[in-house]
Every structure is written in C-alpha cells, then in structure tokens.
Design a protein that fits this description.
With 163 residues, the chain is α+β, with helices and mostly antiparallel strands. It has 3 helices and 7 strands, in the order H-E-E-H-E-E-E-E-E-H. A hairpin with a 2-residue loop joins strand 1 and strand 2. The two termini are 30 Å apart.
Length: 163
Amino acid sequence: MADRTVENPGVEVPQMPEILERVLLYALDEGKQKMMDGEDVIPFTALVVKDSVFIETHPGNNADECYNFAQHTVEGARGAAAYAFCYDGYVETSEGVKDALIAEGGVPGAPTGYAIGLLYTTDPTQGIIFNNNPSYIGEAPNFMDRLRDASEYAETEIEAKYQ
C-alpha cells in the first residue's frame, strides 16, 4: 500500500499521548513480525479498548480502498482510546525513496494524527533488515477526530460493541 501521503512539516517529533505512541509501536511490531515470518502485511488497524487491542485487516484492490475501509472502521469506534493503521509502504528521504513499514494513528477528538515508520531493506541472502528504531514521518489524518474521549461512553455501550 504505497499510495499514501502524510504531511511532514518538520523533523521535530511532537509530544503525543502515551496510549497513541504505544499502539503505534504495537502495530509496527505486529507488522514487522508478519514480514519476518514471510507473510504479506495486509493493511490493518489496531484499536485500543480498555485493556485490549482489537486488530482488523482491511484488504482492498488499491491503497484508496484499504484506506477507506480502515477509516470507516475507526471513525465508528466509539469507546476506543486510540488506534493505529499499519501498512507496508515507502517514504521519501534525503537519500531517496526508502521502503518502510508505516503506522499512523490518533486519539478521539484530536484534530490530527501522527505517522511513524520502520525503514527496511531487503537483502537476497539476509532477507528483510529493519532499522532498530522507528522514525517520525509526520502528521497524518486522524480517523477519530469526531469521536469523544473513551471515558465519555457508557460501559454498557463499550461492552456491547467490543465483546
């Protein structure tokens, strides 16, 4: 899924909510493990609801379909505290285009989301070699921008939606 664009207004990493940082890193770890196991990374979302993470894949015929499926799922995720949308793509760097496993996400009510990524190379003898640390890519759309904070939903409403 390489046809996504995220905005990168600068190189300074912004302060983001801890729950968002954790779910973005979680999604990158999940995607990385799939790639290390030789599997394709079908674009997926990871939703944080209470103490659980719900993962849902979003296959499509092209990047726009995957993105739209993910957005539809997340924008209706009342009661979730954060999400990550993870996919295999690329980023443009000062050294040219680089392959990257990308996770973008947000929290309820925030006007914008953030994207981070793990750059990687593919070697014919060693396979996939990931950078050790994720890189901040830039701002991204927040599929949860119209949702209220998770604490504002009734427990029964959350439990009924995420059994």
